[in-house]
Amino acid sequence: MKKYWLAAAGVVAAVAIAAPSAVGAPTETATASTASTASTASTASTGSLATGTAARTEPAKVTPAKAAAPAPKPVRTVRPGRRVDAGGGFTVWLTRDGKHWTGPDGYENFRSVVDGNIDRSEPGVSHQSEGDATGVFHSGLYYGTREAGRVELSDDEGHKTVATLIALPGRPDWGVWYAHTVPVDGNGGSSLGVTLYDRAGKLLAELPGFEFPAGRG
After folding, report:
1. Above 70 in pLDDT, residue 185?
2. Alpha-carbon distances, residue 119 vs 11, 115, 124, 174, 206 (angstroms)
C-alpha cells in the first residue's frame, strides 16, 4: 500500500510541476505579442509623424489664375427718341436715321446711318470721343449685323473696357455703343482701338486707334 500512495503522490507532483510551465507559457507569449504590437504602433506613429513633418516643410505650389475676359453686357432695347443717361453728363438717343447725343456743354451731335457714309452691307464700328482731365466719354455706331454681342475699347497695354450697347426695337442691323474711360494722353481718346464681337464671341470688325501727327490734335 505504501508503494501505491508514493506512486500516486509522484504523479500529482509531476502534474503540479508541469502546470506552472503550461500556464506561464501563454502569458509570456501574450506579453511578447503585446510588446511587438506596441513596438510596431510606435514605429508606425513615428514614421507618420516624420512623414507629416516632411510634408509640412515642403512649400505649396500655387498656379496663378488667368485673368478672366470682360463679361459682355446685354443689348438694351430703347424706343425711338428715348433719352438714355450715359453718365458723366452725357445723354444718348436713337432715331430711325441715326445716333444723337449731347454732353455737359448741352450741344447736340448727330451721326447718320442713312446718308451713305457707312457701309451697312458688312459689320463695322465707328468711334467718337470727348473728355478732359476727369475722364473720356466714348461712343459710336455698330452696324452690318443683327448678331452684335459686345463692343470693347482697348489700349496699347491690353486694358479693355466693355461698352454698353443700345438698339431700336426689332434689332435692326445697327445700334449705338458708349463707354467711359480714364483720361487718355492726347487725341481725345482716339488712340484706343474698338472691336465688335457677335453674341458667340466671334470677332466681326476692328477699328484700330490712331495717333495724330506731331503738331496736330
Report:
1. no
2. 125, 10, 8, 11, 14
